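Re-run with default settings, no changes from the original entry. Doing this only to confirm the output is reproducible before filing.
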Amino acid sequence: MDFVTHGLKLPKAPQHRARERFVASLRAYVLIDLANELRSDYEQEVLPALADKQAPAPKDGVAVHKLMRGRDQFNFYSSLRCTAQEIVWDSVIDFLEGQQPLLDERFTALSEDQSVAGSLQLNPSLKAPGYYDVTDVHLMPGNYDAHGKDTGLAPGSLYDNGFNVFAFGAMGREFSDIGWSMAQFTKLRFPELNPQCIVDVGCTVGHNTLPWKQTFPDARVHGLDLAAGCLKYGHARAQSMGIEAHFQQARADHLPFEDNSVDVVFSSMFLHELPLKHIQATLAEAFRVLRPGGVMLHMELPPNAPLAPYDQFYLDWDSYYNSEPFYKNFRDQDYQQLCTDAGFDRDRFFQAVMPRFTYVEESEFESAVMGEAKFDEDTGRLSHDIEWYGFGAVKGEES
C-alpha cells in the first residue's frame, strides 16, 4: 500500500515502497509487541521483586522509570525504538531529496487552480521563538522547516511521507483520523455551535485541518503554522484534494484574528511541543479570539494525574529519549487549571477519551464522546487500539 494517496503523491519505485512498509512494520513491532513485553517485565518481574522485599509499589511514572532503567528489556526496547524512529526519516529522505523540482511544479499548478478557493499567506519576517530553532522534535532532521533553511515543499513532504510511516497506518487514511475524530466530537458535544470560523493552530501540512471543512462545510477553516514549507505543502495538498482551506504563517501565541471573532480554536499534538509559558500564552490567545460560546479543543497526550504509574512512565518515555523536552512538564500540569488561568470559567472545562472515528461505528464513537472520560493503557498510546484524548473549554457568554 501507499501511505500518501493525494495529489502530491510521488512516483516511488517498488524498493522505496518496500522500505517504507518494512520500517512501518518495525515501528508497529516496537510499539505493540515489544511494548507489551516491557509491561510484562514490569508486572511479572519488577513488581513481584518489590513485594518480596516488602517495598512499596511505585506511586508515579518517575518512580517506575527509576526501576526500569538499566533492565535488559527496557534497554532493548529503548534502543530499538530510537533506531526505528531515526530510520523512519531515513526511509523517505534520500528518495525525497531528488523530488523538489516535481513538487515545485505541482505546487505552482495547484496554487493557480481557481476551481478551489483555498489560499496561502506567508510572512517571511515572522520571528520564531528561540526553542523552535534548536530542537529536532521526534528526531525529525531539521525539525519542521530545516531550521529555516528550506522554504520549499521538501519539509512538508518529509513530514507527510515520514509520519505516515511513523504511525504505521494507525492514524487513518491521509493521516487524518485525529481531525475527523475531533471535528465529529465537536459536532456531537456542541450541536448548537454552527461554527463559521475554525482555526487549527500548529497545523503542519493540514492533515487534521481538512476534516473540519468536510464536517462543517459552511465554515471558513484556517490552518496556522510557523513552518513555511509545511504550509506551502499543506496548501497544495488541500487544493489537490479539492478542499478549501486557508493556510497562514503565524504564531499560536499571537493569533492574527480580532477579539471575539472565532468559533473554534483547535490543535492536534501541538501543546506538548511548547514550553509552559508558550502553552499559557496560546491558551490565552484562544480565549481572546473566541466568540462567547466558542470552543477551544486540543487533541493531546493525556495528563499524568489520572493514569496508572506504569502508563505515566510509558508515555513519558518520549520526553527522555525522543527529543521532546517539554513533553513531561506539560503532562504534569492540571489541564483544567491551565484553561482557567487563560480566562475560561472553571466549570466550562471538558475532556474526553474516544475511539478513532474512521475505524469504528458512529454509534460506538457517539457513546464514548457523550460519556465520561475513561482512561486506560490505550489512552494516548500509539497502537492499533489507540484512544484519542481531547480537552478544552467553552468561552462563557458573559466574557
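The mean pLDDT is 94. The two ends are 50 Å apart (CA to CA).
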